[in-house]
Amino acid sequence: xxxxxxxxxxxxxxxxxxxDKRVLNHLKKHEPSVLTCIACGSCTATCxxxxxxxxxxxxxxxxxxxxxxxPLKKEVRKCMLCGKCILICPRGVNMRNLILAIQTAIxxxx
Amino acid sequence: MIIEGKKRLWxxxxxxxxxxRYFYVRSCVRQNFFPASEKVFLRILKxxxxxxxxxxxxxxxxxxxxxxxxxxxxxxxxxxxxxxxSLMTESGYEHFVTSCITSFGLYSEVLETWKHFPDVLQKVRxxxxxxxxxxxxLPKNVAHASDVIFRFRNEIASRGTHRLVNHLTGKPLRVVxxxxxHYSKMFPSKGVGGxxxxxxxxxxxxxxxxxxxxxxxxxxxxGFGFRQYIVRANxxxxxxxxxxxxxxxxxxxxxxxxTNCPGCPMFFDRWQYALSExxxxxxxxxxxxxxVLTYEELSxxxxxxxxxxxxxxxxxxxxxxxxxKLGIPYDPETKFAGKDGQDLGxxxxxxxxxxx
Lengths: 110, 356
Fold this sequence. Notes:
- The structure holds 2 protein chains of 2 kinds.
- By secondary structure, chain A is mainly alpha-helical.
- Chain A has one domain (about 30-110): Alpha-helical ferredoxin (Fumarate Reductase Iron-sulfur Protein, Chain B, domain 2, Orthogonal Bundle).
- Chain A has 7 helices and no strands.
- Chain A has helices at about 20-30, 40-45, 50, 55-65, 70-75, 85-90, 95-110.
- In chain A, helix 4 (about 55-65) runs antiparallel to helix 5 (about 70-75).
- Chain B has 16 helices and 8 strands.
- Chain B is globular, with a radius of gyration of 20 Å.
- The interface between A and B is medium-sized, with 10 and 16 residues.
């Protein structure tokens, strides 16, 4: 390969028709409340772990729908499972089970 | 919206293209990239069609390349353009024809600005007078050189010796057309067919016997975008744009790509080579690239000019497969011969792309 001093930038387009839906499909079965999320961000605002590290639980929802498995895997590890987000969620998403189910799904994939 | 209806809507975008007496301004870069294109345009207009085309030796850059790279302020660009118009006025012409798409876009932008803000026009007249002592009239008609070829496409076809048909199979050649972004994306009413269905190259292809390919990324930028290319660190972004287009057009097996911009043919041509060296991929058939032509080069081929006189040997993607399909004779021995027969030397062959 010839060196030109630059390389081809990686595609950053998220194609919702072709993305990896395996984890999301697992959740639809095991924690269907994930589908009721309206991305209001209350969970992130009240998050205990988020006060200490750059954990953003709403980002988990975004990564999940985009099918970005690797960053999702890193993100869910930051959760302390305190459950405050479940108390504040206006849609009743069972966030704690959501995090655990995501971890289970990713473990299964690998 | 129903596509057919949308097409009809855009068909209303037709522009007036002057018939004769053109003041022609060259591009800064095209003579380096595709050395014979502008010469062929002049040859066709003067010798084939008998038109009056005038060039002024005092013409300079329009400053568009600097303007779009954020190093030339708009006031400066307007004053430089005012000077070009003063050269036109001094030469006794009123129909302005630009070779470059970015120039065409900038001339359109400046004229629109002056139309809506007459006080800016007065200010620029003052700047020009102060700097050079010159005055100017506004052109009656501004066209891109591809508009002019489009206008005379049937005359060219009637004089032509070749059509865009595979002479072995009798089938029309499948062509990807790519319009420069500054042609009609900035001012849709200034381009034939507007921004979404520009007809300027499609008209040439269809009337010369070819078939246009409609592929998903048809209106995507070629990847030139001044800031993406001029800054070396951004070139990966430029080449990624071109790659997106090549991948989108490849399944349709185009016979060649036709362009009307200085940057687009350059990047489609050179980036195919760079991608083949970086990733080992080629986008044509049997390890070949997809040949890329300017509309002047294609007009020259239709008219039966020698491919090497059209400068096709300086293309990075070899054009021989296309010449074979068109049934155009060429001499491989004289491919790299200079004007007086001297040997110009052969370039190194690419690692992956088929070389002739």
